[in-house]
Write a structure and sequence with these properties.
- It contains five helices and eight strands; from the N terminus they run ββαααβββαβαββ.
- It is of the alpha+beta class and about 200 residues long.
- The chain has an eight-stranded mixed beta sheet with strand order 1-2-3-4-5-6-8-7, sandwiched between helices.
- α1 packs across α3.
- It is globular and about 40 Å long.
- The mean pLDDT is about 90.
Length: about 200
């Protein structure tokens, strides 16, 4: 049952637009990173291809028919407590972020959450041409976007305990491990990063 304290996700765009919600130049990869709201018609075929590849199946577990994936992301698009973003490097789609309100997720049962706390999942494109530090640059740029909102105080992540690549990435990005928990679909380490700018009282 959803707690009455839950509020709609603050970083969910209020209007349908194909414009970038955030753009910045990342020195570490010598390129421009940008984020848009996920476009079901344009972006989902690419995501469907990614989640059906061997490198994603173990931890994403979203492989299957296109219609099933479409239904999942359509629900997310209509859900005020979650939102999906597509990420680009120099105009090429290279990742997808899911952001969710902790109050509307089972993670709320494992931490002491506060208003507007959010968590995220990141899906990267297949590694066709390695760019050193790209995933870290993507996460840091998205956090810059997220923490631009006055309500943003914390961002959580809950990687599978066996997903060492994700764990190492989070730690390099400044996330701190809080605890290990048993969720309904995995055993996970819970990580958190605080806003770099204290919120006004």
């Amino acid at each position: 049952m959803l707690t009455t304290k839950a509020a709609p996700l603050f970083c969910k765009p209020t209007e349908e637009t194909d414009d970038a919600v955030h753009t910045e130049f990342a020195d570490s990869v010598n390129g421009t990173i940008s984020f848009k709201s996920l476009n079901l018609r344009n972006d989902l075929p690419t995501i469907h291809r990614w989640v059906n590849m061997p490198y994603t199946r173990e931890y994403w577990q979203m492989n299957g028919q296109y219609s099933q994936l479409y239904a999942i992301y359509q629900c997310m698009e209509l859900n005020p407590y979650s939102h999906s973003f597509s990420g680009y490097l120099n105009g090429e789609m290279i990742c997808q972020f899911d952001v969710y309100s902790v109050f509307a997720d089972e993670l709320r049962d494992h931490i002491i959450q506060e208003d507007h706390d959010c968590g995220f999942h990141l899906l990267m494109s297949p590694n066709r041409k390695a760019i050193h530090g790209l995933t870290m640059a993507i996460v840091k740029c998205f956090l810059n976007y997220y923490f631009n909102f006055p309500m943003a105080k914390r961002m959580y992540a809950e990687p599978d305990v066996n997903n060492q690549k994700s764990i190492e990435l989070l730690e390099r990005c400044g996330f701190k491990k809080i605890k290990t928990v048993d969720m309904s679909y995995k055993k996970a380490h819970v990580y958190c990063i605080q806003s770099p700018t204290p919120s006004a009282p």
